[in-house]
Amino acid sequence: xxxNGRWASKRGLPRTAxxxxxxxxxxxxxxxxxxxDVDYLTVFGFSTENWARPRAEVRHILGLHKKLFGRIxxxxxxxxxxxxxxxxxDEPGSRTPVYVQRAIRNAIEDTAKNTGMVLTVAFxxxxxxxxxxxxxxxxxxxxxxxxENLQKHLYDPSLPPVDVLVRTSGELRISNxxxxxxxxxxxYFTERPWPDxxxxxxxxxxxxxxx
Length: 211
Ligand code: IPE
Ligand code: MG
Hints:
three-stranded parallel β-sheet; 43% helix; 14% strand; binds magnesium ion
């Protein structure tokens, strides 16, 4: 969900206003996707690299995640089940504050019975960390080292391969997101910053999966 900062700068607003607009855009995207033929929507909310941003910006983004995970009523209305991938909270180096951990746990619990789209939020996520951890766990397990067995040690082994990857804001790169899972993904690049991503863009991205 890239381009929040640029969206704000263009309007003479602080970057934090861009992140807030981005959170609204995500709520819209979740609603739109849940009404379409989308079984899984996985979004990059906060990366392992994002901790390096200015403290006030990080605090604002964390607050927005708390808000996002708190939208239980809306998620339930749309039959959306919340899921999360990222560095486990009990692992050395985990920096996720307890109030965000609690918001994530509650959202998962309070939407667990929903049967529609699975919304996975990647928070404190980095693909290389995920794969390194999976490799270590697999080696320790003593099982054969092959792709099928490595898959079992991903943060969420049940996530299917990605059909289409969306990158907003004119950035033509991947940035450490789901590197294993995007093996055969189509890629939808758009110039629009994330706050301007709408249902028309979503349909264009989905259309890539049809051919
Ligand atoms: C994406 O917007 C939000 C996060 C990475 C949390 P950016 O903050 O990267 O916005 P730009 O790239 O500076 O425009
Ligand atoms: Mg960016």
